[in-house]
């Protein structure tokens, strides 16, 4: 708890001086009360979820106080929280893989792929569900996402193993050598995009499964499927590319990879999420006035 309090006080220094002098003590006390309650109710997990809300609210509040354009920032609050949620999900996944990765890989390519996918979608889905409102079924969102991810993984992994044995990916990578004449970054991005291409199936399956947890129509579901397909492919490709161009420090690469993947997935899918929320909220509920 002391670490959380010290970190929050450090962040609070970014507030304008006038705001700190007038509200600093009360804001600090409110955070300590929330931290104590979260720790008593759920322990470390409660503190983690508290920080998820604190970070998003902090960025929103700083922008509002500094630029005095609260109306403009209100429409970005949902997107900001969503990006933070996706990023935290990838960070949690990286931590779990760092601890249990060797044991999981020892189970073989098919089993390890299924378990790794479950860890990823469960981590991301749990944090995402904290953002979702009445437009979504939160528990189903996580469960459907896992089921939608694991089933295609069990189908795609054997096909990838077969494709590698035939040298398909090696041929594609060799064909991309021309891009090095233009840019080294472009070359590595295209290469990672080739390796990430099968994730379009995974992303579409996740979007299809999660759409069952959306209280809306088929139009919003289609938008979500497309967003997930693009989001998971590009997040993987850009995350691996960003990690490659960092230093050889393994910890730094882990951080850069996780942040990039989460941020890219969040940014790509945030617009569709907002459209879903607005679309569902526009539909009159049973018993409402027509």
Outline of the structure:
The protein has 290 residues and is mostly helical.
How would you describe this protein?
The chain is mainly α and 290 residues long. It folds into 2 domains: 2-68, no CATH class; 78-282, no CATH class. 83% of the residues lie in helices and 0% in strands. The protein is built from 11 helices and no strands. The chain has helices spanning 2-12, 17-42, 44-67, 70-105, 109-129, 138-165, 168-175, 184-196, 199-211, 218-244, 250-282. Helix 1 runs antiparallel to helix 2 (17-42), helix 3 packs antiparallel against helix 4 (70-105) and helix 4 (70-105) packs antiparallel against helix 5 (109-129). The longest helix is centred in the N-terminal third of the chain and has 36 residues, at 70-105. The relative contact order is 0.09. Residues 69-74 and 285-290 have low confidence and may be disordered.
Low-confidence stretches: 69-74, 285-290
Number of strands: 0
Tell me, what's the shape? globular
Q: Which secondary-structure class do the elements indicate?
A: mainly alpha
Share in β-strands? under 5%
N-to-C series of helices and strands = HHHHHHHHHHH
Mean pLDDT: 78
Q: Major sheet: size, sense and barrel closure?
A: none
Helix content: over 70%
Distance between the termini: 50 Å
């Amino acid at each position: 708890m002391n670490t959380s309090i010290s970190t929050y006080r450090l962040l609070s220094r970014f507030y304008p001086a006038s705001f700190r002098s007038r509200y600093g003590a009360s804001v600090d006390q409110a955070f300590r009360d929330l931290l104590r309650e979260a720790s008593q109710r759920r322990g470390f997990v409660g503190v983690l979820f508290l920080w998820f809300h604190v970070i998003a609210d902090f960025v929103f509040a700083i922008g509002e106080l500094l630029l005095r354009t609260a109306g403009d920032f209100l429409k970005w609050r949902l997107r900001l929280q969503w990006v933070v949620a996706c990023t935290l999900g990838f960070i949690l996944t990286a931590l779990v893989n760092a601890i249990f990765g060797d044991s999981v890989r020892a189970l073989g390519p098919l089993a390890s792929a299924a378990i790794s996918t479950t860890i990823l979608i469960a981590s991301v889905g749990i944090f995402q569900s904290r953002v979702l409102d009445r437009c979504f079924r939160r528990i189903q969102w996580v469960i459907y996402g896992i089921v939608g991810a694991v089933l295609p993984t069990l189908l795609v992994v054997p096909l990838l193993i077969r494709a590698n044995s035939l040298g398909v990916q090696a041929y594609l990578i060799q064909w991309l050598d021309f891009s090095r004449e233009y840019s080294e970054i472009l070359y590595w991005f295209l290469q990672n995009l080739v390796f990430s291409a099968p994730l379009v199936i995974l992303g579409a399956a996740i979007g299809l499964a999660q759409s069952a947890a959306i209280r809306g129509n088929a139009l919003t579901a289609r938008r979500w499927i497309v967003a997930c397909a693009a989001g998971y492919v590009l997040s993987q490709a850009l995350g691996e590319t960003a990690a490659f161009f960092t230093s050889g420090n393994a910890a730094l690469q882990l951080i850069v990879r996780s942040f990039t993947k989460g941020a890219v997935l969040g940014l790509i899918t945030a617009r569709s999420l907002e459209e879903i929320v607005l679309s569902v909220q526009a539909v009159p509920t049973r018993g409402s006035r027509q």
